[in-house]
Amino acid sequence: MTKTSTALTSFDTKTWFKLWSRGETYLALLFILPSLLGFIIFFGVPAVRGLFISLTDWNLLQPASWKGFENYVTLFNDEDFWLAMKATAYYVILNIPLQTAVAVLMAVLMDRLSRSLFVRGVLVLPWLIPNVVVGLLWLWMLDPQLGLVNQAIQALGFERLGFLGSPELAMPSIAAINIWRHAGYTALLIFSGLQTIPKELYEASSIDGADERTAFFRITIPLLRPVLVFVLVTTVIGSFQIFDTIAITTKGGPIGVTRVLFWYIYEFAFARFKMGFAMSAAVVLFAILMVITLIQMRFLRANESDLGS
Hints:
This protein is about 75% helix and about 0% strand.
């Protein structure tokens, strides 16, 4: 090791100790401690216990017995598990692109046409409604006989549609319900990101002859990347955990087309009382979400900002 590298290492070590010895560091740790304890108690400990339960055959009624990785072997050989994965992936593909596109459009329209607090309040209102209420509301509105949507379709001269009872329309209908609920909230997040983009950039691009479309794709989208990364990561995680709407509307039907992974876990845990097996599926879901999140963070360059470059 050269003298320069040795001195640098020594300097870094001394600097690190100095930073830790400052009073601000202990004060920061004091403020972080309650949240850290809450995370450990309510998330860390249950996660470790869940991993242990996934290696047993606990049925909620009798003491658990050790099974090792047998649950995981059974899970990966279960055709229903892969069908649930397929249904979940289909829902994510339906939900994420359209929800993000609608949210971006709404945010841009708000930024250009109206920044009213009333408009923003209306947009976020569906997100404030509990999922159970949203599910019941749309279950009634999409009813083949009494639903307002089918009443309107019939009034226009078309045949009624069994949205939630049709194998072809059930999952798109679930996706549409959740887009209706979350698009406004997502639009507000993107709208807040639009406020950080300097208006001088648009003025300069206009002087250089750039039209609206060019400015949108060359300025708006690149500078919105940190916000879009956050939106995409959180919405993908939420989409993989879709449960409430399906529990209220389709209950995994018809013929299993909306039997997503979360519903699969619920059935084994609380209908078949196979908590160990259900927990192994939950651990696999957690691993999938971790991998997808890391891939998104890596390829979308979440730790970089184009605004300061």
